[in-house]
Amino acid sequence: MSIKKNLQSINSTLPQDVTLVAVSKTKPVSKLMQAYDAGQRIFGENKIQEMVEKHDVMPNDIKWHMIGHVQRNKVKYMAPFVSMIHALDSIRLMEEINKQAMKHNRVIDCLLQIKIANEDSKFGMSKNDAQSLLNSKSYAESTNVNIVGLMGMATFTDNKDQIKSEFDYLKSCYDELKSTNPIFNTLSMGMSGDYNLAIDCGSNMIRVGSSIFGSRNYN
Fold first, then answer.
1. Is the N or the C terminus of the chain less surrounded, counting Cβ atoms within 10 Å?
2. Number of domains into which the chain is organized
3. Where are the beta strands (DSSP E) in 82-210?
């Protein structure tokens, strides 16, 4: 199957209000350009350096989403162009994003990453921490950061019931936080293996890599 065919097949099944982020980490620019030529404009990377390198050589109408864990000392490299940061998980990181966005006279959309998985390897904050951040003086003063929703990663398991309960929990967090933050419009959950379930649970942004580009080679 070609990348173009893969994209067409996924897009043909997506509800109109669901945004597809093509997860292009570890993939060469030539493959990203095949997706671009097929109409894809939103790409997700999980390493800032790799995203910067691709941004520098690819068309400038692409929206770049940073979907991986963010180290504060690297924010400055993506601040000039990143369209959305999915993994905001602390006040200190928010303050750094705000500081770097301000230098470029930009407002950067961000999602709070909520920890919904049972695995220690997954990052994220609790719902209470998210609420505290949204109520904080620091966020009120971070005029170059726009928190527009939540992101979460389900446990890596074949147990669909467990994944569904994690997605349902994230959706309930989203609904509760949205009631006091009407700016919320994005719930980013679901990847290649579980995005249909995520959409059923209320996701309106999915992060799909291997179903578009083929399996990943980490060597």
1. C
2. 1
3. 84-88, 108-113, 145-151, 186-188, 205-208
- Within a domain: residue 217? no
By CB neighbour count within 10 A (0-12 exposed, 13-18 middle, 19+ buried), where does 160 fall? exposed
Distance (Å, whole) CA 90 – CA 85: 13
Domain that holds residue 78: 3-209
Distance of alpha carbon 24 from the chain centroid:
12
Q: pLDDT of 154-191, one tens digit each?
A: 999 999 999 999 999 999 999 999 999 999 999 999 99
**What CATH number is given to the structural domain containing 117?**
3.20.20.10
Amino acid at position 53, single letter: E
pTM of the predicted protein model = 0.96
Three-point CA angle 11, 81, 60, nearest 5°: 60
Measure Cα distances from 131 to 2, 46, 71, 176 in Å.
43, 25, 22, 9
For 45, counting Cβ atoms within 10 Å of its Cβ (0-12 exposed, 13-18 middle, 19+ buried), the class is: buried
- For 130, the enclosing helix (H) or strand (E) is helix 127-135
Given a contact cutoff of 8 angstroms between Cβ atoms, the answer to whether 109 and 83 are in contact is: yes
3-state secondary structure of 37: helix
